[in-house]
From TrEMBL:
Function: Catalyzes the NADPH-dependent reduction of ketopantoate into pantoic acid.
Protein name, UniProt field: 2-dehydropantoate 2-reductase
SUPFAM superfamilies xref list: 6-phosphogluconate dehydrogenase C-terminal domain-like (SSF48179), NAD(P)-binding Rossmann-fold domains (SSF51735)
Species assigned in the record: Faecalibacterium prausnitzii
InterPro entries named among the record's database cross-references: 6-PGluconate_DH-like_C_sf (IPR008927), 6PGD_dom2 (IPR013328), ApbA (IPR003710), KPA_reductase (IPR013752), KPR-Related (IPR051402), KPR_N (IPR013332), NAD(P)-bd_dom_sf (IPR036291)
Enzyme Commission number(s) of this protein: 1.1.1.169
Gene Ontology MF terms in the entry: 2-dehydropantoate 2-reductase activity
Protein family according to the UniProt entry: Belongs to the ketopantoate reductase family.
GO annotation, biological process: pantothenate biosynthetic process
Gene3D superfamilies reported for this sequence: N-(1-d-carboxylethyl)-l-norvaline Dehydrogenase, domain 2 (1.10.1040.10), NAD(P)-binding Rossmann-like Domain (3.40.50.720)
Cellular component GO terms, alphabetical: cytoplasm
């Protein structure tokens, strides 16, 4: 098996890392899947680390039967992209979802079939500037992927390794992909969300016992749900290092979204944990509070609480 036609759906911070890494890989065709106005914008190029890249831009029909489809969307964009994913996927297409959270694979599998999914995640600290996306290639942990069950050294696992070999992409295969995904999910829930409410860099967890208490509360709920699902995070904790070094002023994706006035991925974080907690009978008060606070911040960005106009109907404090 050789992966020669690679399609990327989503050219944001995550997709940019893949496009950057594979742009000079010989022997492949690399394209971004897009239509309409978005396709026209992408044809002008994508700024990544100070350089403009020009991957091919394909409609879903043109990307049909790609050997590999990498889904790098924001969670809110996934429902609207399922038809495009279905059009791209052919009989032998491998699908890797590098989206945050732990349920995008299930959503995609319901559309195209579970046999196409090769479970994966990405760890990259990326942000957008005026000239495009920026990240540090050297400190980026990169893509982690693997089969849910043996054989773990499958033909497609080896094919993905061959694709990334010799590129700038950092990658590794694992026999514990489910646990790896939940480990990243834990990082997002516990480190991504509280700082978004506070509006401060990640140094707040080190410098404030109050922020650490909130992070620990979210973590306790997540760990209880993971244990109930039979997910043993100690497996990956034993093998993981210290992770990526980040400066104390780093602002993760949820806070970046709020800063930019965008809606966040809170539904795939605390929203998903609330649903799972309800199904399992596990209380999730920290996640419920966090969910509603971030939803309220989205409403604030949407202008819902702009009371500067005249003739406002009074409200009553009770």
């Amino acid at each position: 098996m050789k992966l020669e036609k690679v399609a990327v759906l989503g050219a944001g911070a995550v997709g940019a890392y893949v496009l950057w890494g594979l742009s000079e890989k010989p022997g492949i065709r690399l394209g971004v899947v897009a239509e309409g106005e978005r396709a026209r914008r992408l044809q002008n190029g994508i700024g990544i680390n100070g350089k403009v890249y020009h991957p091919e831009v394909w409609t879903p029909e043109e990307a049909h039967e790609a050997d590999l489809l990498i889904v790098a969307l924001k969670y809110g964009a996934l429902p609207g992209a399922l038809d495009s994913i279905r059009q791209v996927v052919g009989e032998h297409t491998i699908v890797m979802s590098l989206m945050n959270g732990v349920d995008s694979e299930e959503i995609i599998a319901a559309e195209v079939g579970a046999d196409h999914l090769l479970y994966s995640l990405i760890k990259v600290v990326s942000h957008k500037e005026a000239d495009g996306f920026r990240f540090d290639p050297d400190t980026t942990l990169g893509i982690i992927y693997g089969e849910l069950a043996a054989p773990f050294e499958s033909e497609r696992v080896q094919a993905v390794a061959a694709l990334f070999e010799g590129t700038g992409v950092h990658f590794r295969a694992t026999e514990h992909i489910r646990e790896e995904m939940w480990s990243k999910f834990r990082l997002n829930v516990c480190n991504n969300l509280p700082q978004a409410i506070l509006g401060a860099g990640v140094g707040c967890y080190r410098d404030s016992v109050h922020m650490k208490a909130i992070s620990d509360g979210l973590r306790k709920e997540l760990m209880a749900i993971a244990a109930a699902k039979g997910i043993d995070l100690s497996i990956v904790d034993k093998n993981s290092g210290r992770g990526s070094a980040v400066p104390p002023d780093a602002r993760y994706s949820t806070l970046q979204d709020i800063d930019a006035g965008r809606h966040t991925e809170i539904d795939m974080f605390s929203g998903a944990l609330m649903r799972m907690g309800k199904e399992l009978g596990i209380p999730t008060p920290y996640n419920e509070y966090t969910y509603h606070m971030i939803k309220a911040l989205e409403e604030k960005n949407d202008g819902l609480f702009d009371y500067s106009g005249k003739d406002q109907e009074p409200t009553w404090a009770k």
